[in-house]
Amino acid sequence: MNLFDLYPGQFAAWCAKGRELLIGAPPRSGASHLLRVIALDRAWSTPGLHVVIAGPDRAFIRREHLEGEGGWWRMVEPAVASGEARHHAGGVTRFANGSAVQLTTWEAVGRLDPGLLLLDDADELGWGGYNLLRERALAVGPVAAGAPPRLVVVAKRPDEGWTRQHWSALNVDEGLRVDLKPEELPEALRGSADVEERKPISYRDYINRVHPGFDWHWHTGLIVETLQRVIDRELLRLLIFAPPRYGKSELVSRKLPAYQLHVRPDEWVGLGASTSSLARYLSKDARSTYREGGGVFREDTQDASLWRTENGGGMWARGVGGTILGLGFNLGIIDDPFSSRLDACRPTEQKRVEDWFWSDFYSRRQLGVDTAIVVMHQRLDERDLAGRLLEREADEKRAEGWTVLNLPAIKRPRRFAFAPTVRLVDDPREEEEPLCAALQTREELHRLEEADAFLFDAIYQQEPKPSAGGGVFDRLNFLPVGNPDVLAALRGDGISLTAIVEQLQKEGVLPPFHREVRAWDIAGSKNADGDSIAGVRGGSTLEPRRIYWLDSIARPIRPGEVKQLILRTARADGLGVEVVLPREPAAAGAIMIEDFEKALQAEGFRVVVVPTTGSKRMRALPHAGATTPLADGTPSRVHVLRGPWIDRFVEQHHAFDGLDGHADDEVDAAAYAYTVLAVQVARAYLGWSR
């Protein structure tokens, strides 16, 4: 058998003239053999020519081009034996006339300057990658009229994707196309890879192709590996828990839809996010990724929030609450359904998101086939969407069988086990090992935890902590200070609280304070005797950073008595204790607070007015974070001076759930005080001026 015999389709391709040549090569048509013949012929006849045959990876090059009866080594064996050619490391064969043929990967072409580039199996390359290699091959200048092509591309599906789109835009002088017929070629020359179609590209390889500089870490590799199981429909329900800025949205919302449509172009991807603008933004990025991977769109649907492939599939994206009637999905993605931490902690918003998920989003899954759903969002509250989905898993009748990829910032044992129906993806880290030290070291994470353990458990550990009572504060985390009998005797003798504090500081029971405040919550709820009021006094220290609650006033009061109570208490506390007042949103309330502020300032008191925006629960969370013990054993940073008020104060915090109608005046007052004390402590700790 003559290895250089060419059959009609091959011969037509060998004779083609023009800048670029597309070879349509269905399986078992001998395209790889044709590329070797063209390479050898051009190298032999053109002195000094550098010819490159490139494929997806070295295993492909070895299997399809180097080895076997019709492989490159067999073809150049006579020339090597006669001394007219020599093999070199790296798949390079050099000829006596100064020409060379190099068999390598697509990636390596970016570092070469080929005079003739032959791209095998280019369907899998994608438009973005092809365009870069094309520019490399044609950079040396225009091709003379009647000259053979400088770029030859083999595509198994020439009428799909970027190959059809690109060649249809070229004129006959710039690019030709020749189609091979499998039946023309003898069995021996058809090639082993043509006998069986190659497996679709993996998700990891797809990312490397569309994003060559992607910054891989072990956890992103695990996420991609798990998402590959979703695309392969091994997993149908997946929850991903990981800290913010660790690549979740990049891998799930921006790249996964493009990969899904690359390997399943006739299917649909549906994406839901907190707002329509975020959903549109993510979908637009997914569309760009799909284009870079070689995908082609239907001309009539290229909107960022709804675009379609040429094979009948596509992607749509909607904000939570948006209408999705008439749309369906094979792969559904939920990315951050809450627009803020405030919303994630608000029961009405939690219920709204859950209702939309089940009644709207979930109902759009394709029936009769396996459909996959991936839910991924930053954990902020135990009853956010992920929390509610996990609650259902405890009910066998409603369980969906979710798989959880749980990647806390620091690996620690969970406080609460998942339901038996939940499958966990293995996390191979050692205890206390950070998720990715290149992004955040363990020391950096510990500083975040020390600043607000409650928030750290939710956002970074992905396990919101409802400790007890109403789910925000635990009575056991308020650390009492002082002898209650001694304190009661001192107060019974008429000694002022300020004098008692100074005496306890001299005795070492209390530390010297960096700052002291008394914060007021006014007219929090109506009582039979009038409005309620609460005033909480506290102090803060710098080293170590601690908060001490020293006193709390809480009782019903008539509106006309509020100003006098605040002034009388301020005088008793002394000028060293600042007064914190809430900024009321209503005009009448604002005028009242302004009047109080002027009256206090006239007597020399320093007044701080704090905003009342957000829910009571949101205002309380920073204080709750300070009461939460750290995982390393560091106890609560909140201490309470023993007194007759302490039980009421602690129990109100313990029962606090942030819902309207519950007693929470002292919680709100303490939250205002904590805001002022904690911010100033942080500023002083960092060396900032007041």
Characteristics of this structure?
690 residues, alpha/beta, Rossmann fold, Nucleotidyltransferase, domain 5, 8-stranded mixed beta sheet, 24 strands, disordered C terminus
Architecture overview:
With 690 residues, the chain is of the alpha/beta class. The strands form three sheets. It has a nine-stranded mixed sheet with strand order 11-12-13-10-14-15-9-16-17, with helices on one face. α17 crosses α22 (616-627) and α22 (616-627) crosses α24. The longest helix has 21 residues, at 665-685. The model is unreliable at 192-198, 524-529 and 681-690 (pLDDT under 50).
Task: Indicate the topology.
Layout: H1 8-15, E1 20-24, H2 31-45, E2 50-55, H3 58-66, H4 72-75, H5 77-81, E3 85-88, E4 92-95, E5 100-105, H6 106-109, E6 116-119, H7 127-137, E7 151-155, H8 161-168, E8 175-179, H9 203-210, H10 218-231, E9 237-241, H11 248-263, E10 268-273, H12 276-292, E11 297-303, E12 306-309, E13 314-319, E14 331-335, H13 341-344, H14 347-361, E15 372-376, H15 385-393, E16 403-406, E17 423-424, H16 442-451, H17 453-459, E18 479-481, H18 484-492, H19 497-507, E19 515-527, E20 530-541, E21 546-557, H20 562-573, E22 577-583, H21 587-602, E23 607-611, H22 616-627, E24 638-641, H23 646-655, H24 665-685
Parallel strand pairs: 1-7, 1-8, 2-5, 2-6, 6-7, 9-15, 9-16, 10-13, 10-14, 14-15, 16-17, 18-24, 19-22, 21-24, 22-23
Antiparallel strand pairs: 3-4, 4-5, 11-12, 12-13, 19-20, 20-21
Helix pairs in contact: 10-11, 11-12, 16-17, 17-22, 22-24
